[in-house]
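COMPLEX REQUEST
Ligand: zinc ion
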Amino acid sequence: MSQFKRTAIALVLIALTTGAYSVLSFALMDNRWDEGPISMELQLGDAPGGLIDGAANWNACANNALSNWNAVLGPTGRSFNAVMGSTRTPAEPDEVNSVFFSGDIFGTPFGDSTLAVASTWIIAQDGIDRRVESDIIFNNAKSFNCYRGPLRGLGATPESTGVDLQRVAEHEFGHTLGLLHPDENGQTQNALMNAFISDLDTIQTDDIQGALTLYGVAVTGIPFPPRNEALDYFLSLENEYLDTLGRQQTNQGFVDAEGTAVWLPEWLRYVLNGCTSAQATDRVLLQIRGQGIQPVCGVVAEGTINFPPRNESLDFLQALDTFYRDELSRAVILSFVDLEGKAVWMQEYLRYRVNGCNNQQATDRVFQQIRGGGIAPICAT
Ligand SMILES: [Zn+2]
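STATUS: Structure written out below.
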């Protein structure tokens, strides 16, 4: 059963001095659009007095904001599709994204300092909820224009100059995608998504990385091995248990070699990017169910690679085994390596791989450990 929920987020009009910050972090909603185009019906109309940057009308000004987002959304599988000049009466929830001027927010008054509001509708579902509507309402009691550079129309400046609608639209379309205000979530970022309008006139690196992360595109460079190499390693681990340890092929499980080689690294990728063990397991199972690559839970500083305790990767493999048996109805498979061996030695192989070792170096180091030869150092300097 699905359920509609509404969230409204306001952009507040207060001037703010921004500094330069390099720490990577952003704030995300726990919902996102399905893959494909996001149509935005631009109904902002004419600007009879003309606009400073020469934009033909308000829709052209707002459309520049959509284009700026589209220039960076490629890897996400989402893009904005501008529908110009629609005459449909804005309503909610109608699963149409209307962009328009109004004196209120579907009947709710604007705050005194509010320039625009993004009103969002989502459908709750397992995992990341589905966004189905995002209306952007500009406060028609405010004076707007369209220009780049330092903000005009605030403080002592004559109101007739107006606030730049393009940057306000770009901020609001960031809410449409699912971004929140970093500065209202304990962060100090150089971000267009901050709650206060400023001299920043376009989306920043932090905004872009937030959008990429929400749609499952990795923005940090933890170098996981290609799937075929993890699979080759896993098959050689089976041989190692047979040839060197003399084990029997008696361990029952439901996950095939490929499943282990694909999903344990994927689980670890979530854990290394801020997810708890349970969050990572939920995300992998959603992926197997066909719901796409899920967002990571946070962003870790570059060079930070904290592997979880081995019992957690064993817990994951047990959950994966149950899932393969009960939901995928897989047949039993016999393996030379028991589940604990898979958890310990796959994780150890991946630890070497993300720390600078190539496939052969990582395999050699793990097998040295299996043969009682001690723990060789990682390869990164
Ligand atoms: Zn906002």
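REMARKS: The two ends are 52 Å apart (CA to CA). The chain is about 35% helix and 15% strand.
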